[in-house]
Amino acid sequence: MPLNPWNTLFSFLTIILPLLNPFVAFAVNPQGEALLSWKQSLNGPTEALSNWNPTDETPCGWFGITCNINKEVVELELRYLSLYGTVPTNLSSLVSLTKVVLSSTNLTGSIPREIAILHELNYLDLSDNALTGEIPSEICNLFKLQEIHLISNQLEGSIPVQIGNLTSLKWVTLYYNQLSGEIPNTIGNLKNLQVIRVGWNKNLGGIIPREIGNCTELTMLGLTETSVSGFLPLSLGFLKKLETIYISTTLLSGQIPPEIGDCIALRNISLSKNSLTGSIPKSLGNLKNLQKLFLWDNSLVGTIPSELGNCKKLTVLDVSENSLTGNIPQSFGNLSALQELHLQRNQISDKIPAQLENCKELTCIDLGNNSIAGTIPSEIGNLTELQLLFLYKNKLVGPIPSSISKCQNVKILDLASNGLTGNIPPRIFQLKKLKIIQLFSNNLSGEIPENIGNCSSLFWFEVRDNKLTGPIPREIGNLENLDILDLSLNRISGIVPAEILGCRNLTYLSLNSNLITGNFPGKLSCLVLLQFVDFSDNFIEGTWPLHVLPRHIAFFSISRNNLSGEIPSSICNLYFVNYLEFSHNHFSMIPPCLGNMSDLINLELQNNNLHGTIPKFVECSNLKSLKLAGNQLEGSLPRSLVNCKKLEILDVANNKVNGTFPHWLVNLPELRVLLL
Ligand SMILES: *[C@@H]1O[C@H](CO)[C@@H](O)[C@H](O)[C@H]1NC(C)=O
Ligand SMILES: *[C@@H]1O[C@H](CO)[C@@H](O)[C@H](O)[C@H]1NC(C)=O
Ligand SMILES: *[C@@H]1O[C@H](CO)[C@@H](O)[C@H](O)[C@H]1NC(C)=O
Ligand SMILES: *[C@@H]1O[C@H](CO)[C@@H](O)[C@H](O)[C@H]1NC(C)=O
Ligand SMILES: *[C@@H]1O[C@H](CO)[C@@H](O)[C@H](O)[C@H]1NC(C)=O
Ligand SMILES: *[C@@H]1O[C@H](CO)[C@@H](O)[C@H](O)[C@H]1NC(C)=O
Ligand SMILES: *[C@@H]1O[C@H](CO)[C@@H](O)[C@H](O)[C@H]1NC(C)=O
Ligand SMILES: *[C@@H]1O[C@H](CO)[C@@H](O)[C@H](O)[C@H]1NC(C)=O
Ligand SMILES: *[C@@H]1O[C@H](CO)[C@@H](O)[C@H](O)[C@H]1NC(C)=O
Ligand SMILES: *[C@@H]1O[C@H](CO)[C@@H](O)[C@H](O)[C@H]1NC(C)=O
Ligand SMILES: *[C@@H]1O[C@H](CO)[C@@H](O)[C@H](O)[C@H]1NC(C)=O
Ligand SMILES: *[C@@H]1O[C@H](CO)[C@@H](O)[C@H](O)[C@H]1NC(C)=O
């Protein structure tokens, strides 16, 4: 096809001319001009707007623009662009706009009052920008407005009282701003309002106006993280379409009005972290659609109403951290959709109802820190979805039901601080997902089952303060993921098996106050992540092996054993150690380098057989407690101790220390205890 050179030149010019001087070649109509001059004002990259072409007749084909049949711009819709400009102010040509969306577009500045000119506007979304200033009251002249979204900006000032004039309004979302003032009672005029979300405006206060009861179309009321105070209005009961109430972390007080039970459409209620008092209204049992009920961290008293068992769709119930008493209603066995039951930190008593076994969807049972008595029902083993079981700090007695081994999905089993007796059932260690087992402070007896080695996910095993006997099973060495092992305060005997070196991830190892014998296990230095090691109060004997501890240890105690010989100077390579305790053994020599361990906070060497002089303390700026009593140390107290500016306790009693009274100790401002 032959080319017409004039055509080619013409299209070349139309492209190049606007680039040279965009104000010269506008062929576009005034609406396009207004849009282009706004585009000119933007400071961000505008590739997204590259088809905003001044030579077009109308802007109707431009990115983000929609026109009506008369080629008037009715929608301006731009999202997720880095425009770096302001909301357009010169809107006089764009009065045909019905919808403006400029969200996530890095806009700054304020919402221009000129917006009041857009009389046809029914949808405004300026969310997720950095807009400042107040919401202009002029916005309330836009009587056709149905939706206003100003989420995530830095808007200040109050919600304009004239908002009550916007009788077409259906959605108002203003959360994540810095609005203050009160919720105007004129919202009672908004008969079409469906959603109002103004949460995360820390300074928005006042009461919730009772006029809200006239917003009968309301489905969602969101006021979380505001400073609204006073009582929940009884008029909420008029809201038959209300599905969600989110008013947590505010200053609400008073009782939960029983009228809330009239809001039959309610699905989610969150009133947690307030100062609500009184009891949980029985009328909540009327809410057949209720799925989530969060009332935690209030000051609620009384019993949990058994009527809640009627809320058949309930999936999450959290009334933790209140002062609730009485029992867990048996009717909860009717909650067949229940996934999470959180009752911790109340004063709930009586037994765990066996009926809970009907709640087959349960993934989390948290009843910790109550006064629940009786035994753990073996029916709990029927809850095959269960992942988290918290029963700590109650008054439970009897055995740990071995049926728990049927809960194949359990990850955390926390039965600590009860009065449980009997053995640790070996079968629980077959649970392949089990990560945390907390059984401390019970009355468990018998041996630690060797099956523990099968529990390959085990990360934290704490059985401190029980009556366990027998050896530490060698199989424990199979637990490559084990991080925390606390067997202290039991009657465990035998040696520490060398297999423990298989627990490569161990950071915390506490075996204190048992009947452990044999030599100190060599090669603990292989466990490079170890930070805390407590072997105190056992029957470990022999001399102290060289190079036994990993470099990053922070706490080490071997006090109250039968070790003898020298403390090797290699101990001084533990640069990061804060607590070093060798007391009540038969050690004979103190390495002079101990005075150079700058991270030491606590050094206990008392009641040994240490000879020689007290080392010079050169680097001891963190040392708070130095106990050397009950040894054979001689010579004078080294004056270098004045370097230990944080020293609070200095005990050198029962040695052969002589010399004049160390008056220079007055230079240690923190010193509280001095025994010479
Ligand atoms: C506003 O835009 C119109 C064209 O759309 C223009 O004529 C007018 O000068 C502009 N006004 C200001 C103040 O920029
Ligand atoms: C621009 O907006 C995006 C999305 O909202 C945001 O992640 C980014 O931090 C903003 N950039 C600046 C400089 O504000
Ligand atoms: C708008 O609301 C204010 C205050 O609520 C009221 O005084 C005023 O009359 C209303 N204006 C119109 C036009 O309805
Ligand atoms: C609700 O509206 C009715 C009229 O529709 C009015 O009589 C009543 O006073 C209003 N109530 C509240 C609490 O605003
Ligand atoms: C209310 O709960 C339902 C079901 O749990 C959930 O799907 C919905 O998103 C919640 N509503 C709101 C507004 O968050
Ligand atoms: C709900 O639980 C109670 C107590 O366990 C029981 O008596 C009642 O029959 C149950 N109701 C339904 C509808 O399942
Ligand atoms: C138990 O609850 C009390 C007060 O409710 C609280 O002080 C304590 O820290 C809680 N204990 C545990 C282990 O959660
Ligand atoms: C529930 O557990 C009990 C006791 O462990 C058992 O006897 C019963 O067969 C179990 N029921 C179901 C349905 O698994
Ligand atoms: C354990 O048993 C002893 C003796 O039977 C009892 O005195 C003690 O209170 C029990 N401890 C716990 C935590 O129940
Ligand atoms: C569990 O551990 C025991 C003892 O270590 C072993 O005999 C048994 O085969 C293991 N069972 C499973 C299922 O791994
Ligand atoms: C040990 O810990 C590391 C990091 O915490 C983790 O990635 C790893 O899976 C753990 N288990 C083993 C066997 O190394
Ligand atoms: C302190 O004791 C050492 C050795 O036991 C001795 O050499 C020295 O003379 C004594 N000093 C004083 C002042 O008694």
TrEMBL record:
Residue span(s) of domain Leucine-rich repeat-containing N-terminal plant-type: 29-68
Signal sequence residues: 1-27
Alphabetical keyword list: Glycoprotein, Leucine-rich repeat, Membrane, Receptor, Repeat, Signal, Transmembrane, Transmembrane helix
One GO cellular component term: plasma membrane
PROSITE patterns per UniProt: LRR
Cellular compartments annotated: Cell membrane; Membrane
UniProt cross-references to InterPro entries, sorted A to Z: Leu-rich_rpt, Leu-rich_rpt_typical-subtyp, LRR_dom_sf, LRR_N_plant-typ, LRR_R13L4/SHOC2-like
Pfam families: LRR_1, LRR_14, LRR_8, LRRNT_2
Protein's name in the database: Leucine-rich repeat-containing N-terminal plant-type domain-containing protein
The organism of origin for this protein: Castanea mollissima
Source lineage: Eukaryota, Viridiplantae, Streptophyta, Embryophyta, Tracheophyta
